[in-house]
Amino acid sequence: MDYKIRRVRKEDLDRVTEVEALCFPPEEAAGREAFEQRISHFPECFLVAELSDGRIIGFINGCATDGNTICDEMFEKADFHKPDGAYQSVFGLDVIKEWREQGVAAALMNRFIEEAVKRGRKGMILTCKDRLIHYYEKFGYQNMGVSGSVHGGAVWYDMRLDFMDTGK
Asked: Which molecular-function annotation in GO is an example for this chain (predicted)?
């Protein structure tokens, strides 16, 4: 089955909440209220991968900010979003298990990068666990070391992609 990438819509709220719960442990997963705020405050920074039957199989989202790292408060408070922010953050790159390793996550990330470039951002920021550092480096992200984030009680690493460094 083919899928398309499109901007999130309000009616996607329940499904993105469900996908998040499938992709992250409960202590790390964003809840319905957080997604409701994100969809309301920055739908332009929230993309979904949708099958031809309308089922959402993955998504990527995050606010724009002037900071070059993510702080934990950003996950819960959508008012951290600055429409003209220098950096596009990535709060989550979610793909349901049966669609992993088929290029969906890479397609979402590449499209998110393209849109950030079009909006004139300086770069992208995210946090990830050590096992995913290598994956994000494939997109040009650099490991900036252990993050100050303690989200969900996990150890996170700050990753940054500077567009001037990558030629994007």
From this structure: N-acetyltransferase activity
